[in-house]
């Protein structure tokens, strides 16, 4: 029996390592280690707080197989902060290991493959499973690769290419469990703790279907904020979508590309509810959002993005886009919001410069309108756009008053492409008026950020990146970030050093 198993193993290994199979099979990896000195990264630090110093890493293994009729991809990753286990012998840290991607793509038509005969279109396939959704400049849909854990969706996407057109149609439907006794389609849209303290400080199990509300003292309260194990998304999202559908269509004419996106995400309805803690004598109440209501709140986002060259040498490039949101937000409020982007880039050879302006609508604090005008940039890559210090639309949320962001970026790339240097300046302002504690209008100027990023390729698979960023804020930033006025340091900084190793194990 041992000889049979050994022979089969050697035979399979020989097949996969043959030249014919090697062209269809890829096995790549990544080790990305990032050390950071944070002194106001993501939000202003309270006066008296000390800077944070930490190292995080991502270890990822990617497997991809391609044949005439099927494409299969799997990506497994381990994401951790050094020392988070608080042990050198702990073997119970498996929660950091996850499947980032696991999808298969059925190839149903391919004009470039004679085995399909006469194909009606250049390419048509159906991709199903856990996958990244990356479109255009990743403003609204991106893989958020800067985060060590990145972003992915469990979805099905129909993909078509023909005569310069790209058309993708996708959908997803989320559920918590496949248990036999689970009925209906109610969905608890976040990872919540197993236990929280009730209103009197007693530990209590969180009931099924609840997102508990907890105040600053750690007690359950009607006016508290959602208590989550991990955020469902960026931009301060407190719940994941129940279902989503999207249509993406783009047409390429030479150096010009026009892309349209229509995206609908549906959020489960909830009611404010409470449950009495029945364990013990002096017990209190658990307050929370109970996701047991019929129906969904649907948000619609649609718009266009144009990218084009303005001269024959393609030295001048223009990007312009606009998107509008309607329907209802996660909490059921009526929604009417928009965002615009405009950028002009000049880059003849090794040096390029971009001047641009991003505008994201928000709510006016002096308006009595019940309509929500805060635009949410969906599931994109916010780190790429509104400053590398991630103050806006990233993990710490967005200002109620929206954002007006004129910016300039300059970049140098050496002739051999091994060295790159980028300098960025961002001017941050509110898009709508906000009030201070006295009811007076605060200044719309939030502050300015300067970023300097240098990258160097040590070899074909290894790069080193050094970043140094600084932000000088005004007191208006305290209001924008929900910080008690006059309690934060207005000067922030962030420095990081990142090593990125990406080997191709089957490449000679």
Question: Mind explaining what this structure looks like?
Answer:
With 508 residues, the chain is mainly beta. Helices cover 5% and strands 47% of the residues. It is built from 3 helices and 24 strands. The chain has an 18-stranded antiparallel barrel. It has a 4-stranded antiparallel beta sheet with strand order 11-10-15-14, with no helix packed on it.
Q: Compute the average pLDDT.
A: 92
Shape: globular
Radius of gyration: 25 Å
**H/E element order:** HHEEEEEEEEEEEEEEEEEEEEEEEHE
Proportion of helical residues: under 10%
The number of helices is 3
Percent strand equals over 45%
Biggest sheet features: 18 strands, antiparallel, barrel
| DSSP summary, beta strand count | 24
Straight-line N-to-C gap? 34 Å
Low-pLDDT stretches are: 1-6
Please state the structural category: mainly beta
Key structural traits:
508 residues, mainly beta, 18-stranded antiparallel barrel, 3 helices, 5% helix, disordered N terminus
Helix and strand arrangement:
Blueprint: H1 2-16, H2 19-22, E1 25-39, E2 52-66, E3 70-81, E4 97-110, E5 123-131, E6 153-162, E7 165-173, E8 195-197, E9 203-205, E10 210-214, E11 225-226, E12 243-253, E13 256-268, E14 271-276, E15 285-290, E16 296-309, E17 316-328, E18 334-346, E19 351-360, E20 403-413, E21 419-429, E22 445-457, E23 462-473, H3 475-480, E24 491-501
């Amino acid at each position: 029996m041992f000889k049979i198993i050994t022979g089969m193993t050697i035979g399979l290994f020989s097949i996969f390592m043959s030249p014919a199979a090697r062209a269809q099979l890829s096995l790549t990896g990544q080790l990305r280690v990032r050390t950071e000195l944070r002194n106001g990264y993501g939000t202003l630090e309270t006066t008296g707080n000390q800077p944070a110093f930490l190292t995080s890493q991502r270890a990822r293994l990617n497997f991809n197989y391609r044949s005439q009729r099927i494409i299969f991809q799997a990506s497994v990753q381990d994401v951790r902060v050094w020392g988070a286990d608080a042990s050198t012998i702990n073997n119970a840290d498996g929660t950091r290991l996850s499947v980032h991607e696991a999808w298969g793509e059925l190839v149903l038509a391919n004009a470039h493959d004679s085995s399909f005969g006469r194909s009606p279109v250049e390419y048509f396939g159906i991709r199903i499973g856990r996958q990244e959704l990356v479109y255009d400049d990743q403003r609204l849909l991106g893989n958020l690769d800067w985060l060590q854990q990145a972003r992915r969706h469990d979805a099905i996407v129909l993909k078509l290419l023909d005569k310069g057109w790209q058309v993708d149609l996708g959908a997803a439907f989320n559920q918590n469990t496949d248990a036999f006794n689970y009925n209906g389609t109610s969905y608890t849209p976040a990872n919540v703790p197993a236990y929280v303290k009730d209103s009197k400080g007693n530990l209590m199990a969180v009931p099924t279907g609840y997102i508990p509300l907890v105040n600053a003292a750690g007690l359950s309260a009607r006016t508290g904020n959602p208590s989550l194990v991990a955020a469902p998304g960026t931009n301060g999202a407190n719940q994941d979508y129940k279902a989503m559908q999207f249509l993406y269509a783009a047409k390429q004419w030479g150096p010009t590309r026009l892309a349209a996106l229509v995206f609908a995400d549906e959020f489960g309805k909830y009611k404010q509810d409470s449950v009495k803690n029945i364990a013990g004598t002096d017990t209190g109440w658990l307050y929370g959002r109970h996701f047991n209501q019929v129906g969904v709140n649907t948000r619609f986002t649609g718009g266009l993005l144009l990218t084009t060259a303005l001269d024959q040498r393609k030295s001048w490039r223009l990007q312009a886009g606009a998107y509008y949101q309607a329907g209802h937000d996660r909490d059921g409020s009526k929604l009417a919001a928009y965002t615009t982007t405009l950028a002009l880039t000049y880059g003849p050879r090794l040096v390029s410069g971009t001047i641009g302006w991003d505008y994201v609508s928000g709510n006016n604090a002096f308006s009595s309108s019940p309509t929500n005008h805060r635009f949410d940039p969906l599931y994109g890559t916010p780190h790429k756009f509104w400053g590398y210090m991630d103050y806006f639309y990233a993990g710490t949320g967005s200002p109620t008053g929206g954002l007006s962001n004129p910016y300039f970026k300059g970049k140098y790339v050496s002739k051999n492409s091994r060295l790159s240097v980028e300098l960025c300046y961002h001017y941050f302002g509110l898009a709508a008026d906000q009030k201070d504690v006295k009811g007076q209008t605060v200044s719309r100027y939030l502050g300015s950020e300067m970023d300097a990023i240098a990258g160097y390729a040590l070899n074909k698979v290894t790069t080193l990146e050094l970043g140094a960023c600084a932000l000088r804020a005004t007191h208006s930033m305290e209001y924008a970030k929900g910080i008690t006025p006059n309690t934060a340091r207005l000067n922030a900084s962030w420095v990081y050093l990142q090593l990125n190793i990406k080997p191709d194990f089957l490449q000679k």
